Every structure is written in C-alpha cells, then in structure tokens.
Amino acid sequence: MKLRLLMVVALSLLCSSWVLGETVYSCDFEQGEQGLSFTVDPCWLAGQGTPAWSAGFLPGSTDGSGDVVDTAGFLSDQSLYLTGYHTNWLDLGEVTRAQWFAFAFKPNLPDSDDPNYSCWIGTTRGGPGDMTGISMWLNNETKRIMVRDNDVDADMGPWTNHQWHTIAFYHQSGGFYFSGRFDVYVNGNYAGTASSESIHHYNGLGTIVFSSGHRSFYGTPYNTDGDWFIDSIYIGDEPRFQTLEDCETVAVLGLNLAGDLSEDCYVNEVDLYTMGSDWLDTGSDMRSDIAPDDVVNLPDFAILANDWLRCADPTDADCGTYVKKAAVIGSEYIVTGEYADYEPGAMWDNNLQYLGYEVTKLASKNMADWADSLGQYDLVLFTALYEADPNAELVNWSDLGDELADFISEGGLVIMEGVRSNYASVDWLTSVNASWDLTVNDRLSGLPDWTDPCLMSLHSLPDGPEVVAYYTARIPEPAAPDFANGGITVSGGTVLATNRNDNTTIWTDTMGDGRIIVTTYFKGYALDKYMFENLLAWCEGAGYTPVFEEGPTVAEQVATFEPAGSNTSPITVTVNDDSILEIDGSPFFPFGFYKVTYGSLSTVSTNGFNFTMNPTDILDFSAWSFGLRTTYQMPWDTSMLPARINGDTVNAGLIIRDMGQQPSYWTTPVSNYFFRVRSGVASNLDSDRPNFVVMRNPASFEGYVEIGDMSTIEPFCISDSTSSLAKIADDIDAVEEITYDGSVLVLLQAFYEADEYSWPTSAQLRGEMYVALAAGANGIVWHALEYFEPEYQTIKKLNGTYQEPQWTTLKELADEFADIESFIIGSDDTVTVSVLSPSSGVYAAVFTRTASPEHLLVVVNSESSSQSVTLSWPLDISANTALWDSPAISVDTVNDQITLSLTGYQRGAYTFDE
User: What is the per-residue burial (b if ≥16 Cβ within 10 Å, else e) of 133-167?
Assistant: First the structure.
C-alpha cells in the first residue's frame, strides 16, 4: 500500500528506545490473547494499576469488536480492530504522573459524508461513563480531526480514510490534573491547542475508551458501521511521536514514495533503470512489483510514472514534504499568580504550525548558543518582549547584527512585533543595516510589560482584507495608553500600515534576497493570525495560498439581517457638532441613574433627573410614562435583534441602545468584531437611535469607543476620603482622543464596595460631577440608585430608605444642573481654560451661548487638599455672578487671568455677560 508522505509524516519510536522518564503504559499489539476481554501479553505497565482491555456498552452483535487482527499495523504485525458502539476500554487504574498519551490509528469508515459514522477515543477520570477529560473523534462529514474538552471543539486538521495517522495529546500541567489547555500533535506535527472555557479538573487518568459509531456513552447508536484500527498505544513522560528528520528514517519506516525503488527519497532515472532491469520478471517480494501482482508490468510503471520527479526528503526545501522552520525569539519570563497560564514566547505556536512551520523557541538569555545557527530557519519572529527579560541578563542585541544580516541577505524573513522604545527597541537594527535608522514611540506606555493589554483595533494592509484583532488577555487596571503617540520613525523602506495619526505601524525593507518587517502591533493587539498571514502573503506575492479563512466581513454579516416589521420610530436621536444628543432636533443631556427599578421611577423623575440607564429591557416603556428617557441592552444573540428592535421602534422613551460592557469585564472573550456586527445590525434595522459600549478599563477604549455612535465610560476612582478624581478627566480625554471629540456618557461612582470602593462624600460627589462637566462629558449617570448584588451598598436601600447624606447631595446636584443645563446643551462653543497654577489637579471650562448671560465658567479641584488657582481668561469681561456657594474670584482683564482658592473637591460656577 502506498503511503504518501504528504499525508503521513510521522515516526513512531518503539517504547524500548526511550530510557528517560517513566513509561506508564505501552502496547504495540504483538501476539497476545484475542477476544472481547483480554490482556495483550507484551503490553505492560510500570508502577500503577493493571492494564486490562474490556468490552463495554455493546449493542447487539459484537462481531469483530475488540479483536487483535493482522492489519499491516503501524509498526507491528497486528493492531486492535474496533467496530460498533463503544467497543473497548483500557483500564489503567489511576495515572496521575503521565503527560503524554499517544497512539496510531487508521480509519476504515464507509466512503460517505454521513456524519453518523464516527470513531473516537476519550480519557476519563475513572471507568467508562465517569467524568470525561479529553476526547478526539473523526468527523466523517468534514473529514477533520476534532478534539474536545468540556464541549469546546477544536479543529486539528484533516484525516484520510484507510490511511495510518498518529495522534498525541500533551498536557501542559503536571500529570492529568487538567488545567483547561492541552497541545495536540497529529502525524508528529503540532496541530493546535484545545482549550476549555472553564478549568476542568478530572483528577487523574483512569480509563481510555476506544469507540466507533455514536460518541455518547449512553443511548442508542446512530450507526455501528464505523470502524478503525488502533496501534502503538503509549502513555508516559516522554514524547512518543516526532517528525521525520532525514531520508533514512523515511526508508526505514517504509514511508517513502511508492515509485522510490532506490529508497533515496527521489523518484528519477535511478528508479526507472531499476524497474527496467526487472521488467516482466515474475515472483514474490520483487522491489519493482509495486502493484503488487507478482509481475513487473504496466500497473507498476503507472505508479512510478505518477511519482515521476517527486521527492520525499524532509530536509529538501524543494520537496513537497519540506517543513518550513520558524524560530521564535522571546522572553522566558515566568508568570505566576492570576496569569500563570500565560506563556511568553509561545503565543504564536498554534498559528505558526497551522501555517506550515516547525517552531523552535530561542531564549534571549541563550543568544550566544544559537546566534550563529539562524541560517537553518526560514522565518525568525521576535516577540514583543525580546529586548529584556526580568529573569535573565540584559541582552546586547547589536551582537546579533552580523548573523541577522547574513540570514536576511540569504533569503530569510524577519518579523519584529510589538516594537517599543524599552522592551522591544529597534535602535539596534543599524548594526544589521546602517540605513535602517528606526526609532519607535511608546504607544503602549503605562501598560504592564509582560502581558497583552487587550487593546483591539482594525487595520488593513494594501491588499485590502479586513483584519480584526481578537481579545487574548485581560489585565486588571492598566494606566491609560498614550493614544496620541505611537508609531515608527522610518528611514527608507516601505510603509505598509499607519495609525490614526498617520504614524507608521508596519514597515518593511529588503536586504539581499530576504526581508524584514517591523510592527508596533503584537499578538492580541491588531496583529492576529489573519494580519500575520497577510504579511506573509504580501511577501510571497500572488502565488500565496491562504491557510486561515477570515470569514465574512462586518458588512456581509450585517447585510444578512432584515427588519422583522415596518414600525416607524416616533423620534430621531442624533449627535450634533457639539457632541450633544439631540432628540427630534432639541438638545438633550442625559442626567440620571444606572439600574432603576419600577418603584423608583417616580422618585427619579420628581427630583430633577431625566434619564435611566438599564442593562435590561424591563423599563423600556415604563420609564417614558414618567417622562424619563432610557436605554436598553441589545440581546447577545444577534439573531434576536431584528424582532427585538422592531418591537422597540415605537417607544418614544428609548433613545440609546447598549451593546454591553467591554470584554475585559467578562470571563469569556468577546471580540470587537462581535460588537461591530451587533452595532451594524442595530443601525441597519433602526438608524434613528445611537448605540454605545460601556467601558471601565482604559486599555479597552481603543477599538471599542468607535464602534458605537457615542461612548460610555466608568471611571470609578473613590477608594477613600482623599482619592483623586483626576481619573474621570483622564478617561474622558483618552476617549475623546480616539473618537475625535465624540459624545461621551460618564457613569460616576455613587456606591460602596467593601473590597475596593468607598462611599463618596458629599464633596466628592459634587467634585465628580464638575470634573466630568469641565472635562467634556456629554451625559452623567450616577451608579447606582439601586443595585441589589451583595457586594454593593447603594443609594436606595432594600428597606426603602436612602443613604445619607449622599441622597440629599445628589438631589442638590440635580438642582444645580438644572440652573446651568441651558449653558451645557445650548453652548455654541466650549473653551477649555488653561490652569497656570498649580499645574495639575484643577479643571476648568467656559461654555458660551447666545442667550444672556452668555458665558458659564466651571472650575473644580479634583484633589482632597486645598489649592490656590490661577486661570488664563480668554474673554474681555470681568463682571460675573457667582452661583450658589462658589468661592470668590478675582478677574484681571489686563493680564487675562482669574485667581481663586478651592478647598478639597470644591467647585466654582460663574456666569458672565458680554
């Protein structure tokens, strides 16, 4: 039987060849007891339990089930033949130390796409039917190898019927105390990592079940005609299967091309001469009798002709079997605690393997050992942490200049991701090529050095494909990035992509026969597997065949949804040039509470508030009956949007749709692609209302604030009586930097949480509101009037009373806002007044309108300590009226300055006439 190396590139090593580590179980199915319940004689166990094959859950006939038969096995003369439904399991007792589980298999399924035919194996904690650990099955409909844990399917590539394959599961945690992720190797090559959405402990491997037919442990099988052969089962500390290394191993295993009579991995005139010498000879065991039919004739020549000039040398790059090699240079930083599963330098393994690369990790601290061996690789990838490693000595990367220059000049490809000025500097590239005078700004300044900041952004290469960066990691509370900064200062070469400020984000240049690509993006931030492959495709040209299918664009997804009815919205909500919401052309400033129950709608309305923000749809219509505008959160199932939106178009109270909270708030990943689809569908079905996403983590602003028509942020910041309120202004500034002064709704803290946040004092509540107004907020929502989750203490208590003095203060602030609202929503211009002294901690703005008085000055101290303040004053007037209990001010129109003193968190409000 001809085994093509393109389909099987695997070497199964005999268990006796391993001398390191412990072999828990190994069985190659040589001669042994046959039958439905047996112990195969040479299959043995070291140290734990007793291996025993047993029949289980067999419906009806058991013919052929569990027999050891002669099937031209993978390495031995015999293999285990399985047919029917849940045929056999291997009882191992309890194995807690093993890391590798591997076996060889040959599918023998009917040649059809009937999904009811299947073969599968599963590992369990105890006996069959106990908690399942991992499982693998052959999807007969798609002809793909699927791996599952906890009902999360992972595609590990194709399988071929009537063809031997190998499979190996490598558990990353010690023993079989499963941590939710495991690597899978198919035919000796890394195929991918299967992941569970939740940690799934099954506390030791006790049983391996080999089955065919239906995959469930219980119930009637759909079909029992699926069958397969199993051989070379292994459990132990060492890897069982590995890729071919040279032509000799190809010949030894009999995996060379059928027409390769000389067994030199090439089919050429040498093999043709051999067949010519044997032509028309008869007899058995003739090398040229490829067919075989005991005669060397035309059927044999046809096979040789089919393989003519093909090769199977795994070391020859011109052979179809050549495996490209990639070196990944990254940190060996050992992460502990919450992010213990994070593996610096390993994040690209899965993608690179799918792209056809054999991956080798090169640690920065060992550069002296591998620097002169780069020539053996096709691709060298520098990950985002390549310059410094907290657990290793600093590396002088200029020492790599000559070696890298040789590598590129001789045709190599270098990709440097996540470049920054500190951990991923590019200054040293002048040691590779003097013309590469590159520098890079700290676009991600302030973020943790060791993990992805879960920023997401959309970018396209010149070829135009839409590229979506997906969520990869969550971080607690990073400092806000410098969104205005970022980019590579380049010299020569070609710019492939830029950021919103037109700074270079992907740059490339050639040197000799090779190329270098430098990008500020990295895994989890814009550089996802699709963007990475686009870079490879750009380098290789039109002949490149993509591996990853990007799927439908947002526009294509949106176009599949049509309105469920024809209701007409009674209102139109837009955002004007001053970033103020307008309802039917009239300006509206949302000022209310988050999560209000029906019993409090009257209280909210009668105390001067006009808005409720609700994460559910309970109050969509009820709020309007009290004169309140409101929101609702879109259903997470996009297919439910048409009916839901169609039913809400008649609601005059509904003005904004809430797409949900940022993905860093949730335990499961949510990409901005998903939010953009939902927003697009909602806007397509009803364009008369805006959408927004709620964001708490500043690192999530970019890539999310632009999805909706307005932005909503939660800058909670009050942990004690001296907390700074500057975070409110900082977050608004960051959002406005991204959205170019888009509308910003701010959720301000009005609650207590024992482990993190304190009750805001009356002064802090007042300061919050005026910091938000001075910083440019276009809506204020107090979080929260009612919130019944145990960890929060809210303004309205469960017994119906209100937290004091916070509730009284909020009502006073509603009155104050009513006095100045016409300035806020009717402003022709908002002028930010610069603070001359002190340099920080004070915020001020002037709102100008056509009515008299024309101007409103708002100034506020965000700090707990008193400050004397000097402001620049842009107007040629001094007469003013202080509102409420605002401190006195001194206006100097000669020097264009205003001076005043502010106590902790104090605000001042003043009106001016021209």
Answer: bbbbbbbbeeeebbbbbbeeebebbebeeeebbbb
